[in-house]
Amino acid sequence: MSGPQCCENPPSLNPNSGAGHVEQLGGLSCYIAGSPQYKLAILMVSDIYGYEAPNLRNPYWKLADKVAAAGFYVAAPDFFYGDPYVPDKIDRPLPVWLKDHGVDKGFENTKPVIEALRSKGVSAIGAAGFCWGAKVVVELAKSDYIQAAVLLHPSFVSVDDIKGVKVPIAVLGAEFDQRSPPELMKQFEEILTSKPGVDGFVKIFPGVSHGWTVRYNLEDAGAVKCAEEAHQDMLGWFFKYVK
Prior knowledge:
Number of helices: 7
Shape: globular
Order of helices and strands: EEEHEHHEHEHEHEH
Structural class: alpha/beta
Strand content: 15-25%
Largest sheet: 8 strands, mixed
């Protein structure tokens, strides 16, 4: 079950939208960024706060736009059908919310989205998963649905999941993370290091907590720097393997 860190520091919604637009893709509302002429795509799978959490959509800081600016066609689907986790809803705590929005359902919902991307002429797909979304992405990484994966402060991801990965995968973790503590991250690294034929990369960011890549204070220079470093690591992985 997801721990309290998943619920810490919820995003403050920003009325500014991103540079892209929302359209239906594979039966889901998706935030789309990047030229439709791009043949390389990135699927972004959000944390429990959903695809409209501000750091996925702000025109300057939000990550989907940043990835699109690097030359990728980006799809950030609403896997929660307009029903993201809201901490203020005391009658619907996280365990109850997760019954309606399990990662297994999220994984199944990625398939028509990926099919729709392929129908647009996309030739290679990478996937980035944040917290809840990391479990969805690691399931994709066990198959040929995607060509590369990045997990950022993952939740629910197990040693057995990492053992089953078949595509290049990077795992970016935090020093302070109850869901994926450094001890677990080191186990992931050991497995990937000994796994033949699959490139892996594991990095633990010092001084940060779960969620730091998308839920950070834009006025905190140190927090911004750590988030941007993780974003660059993610992009570097996709530049190398999504081609």
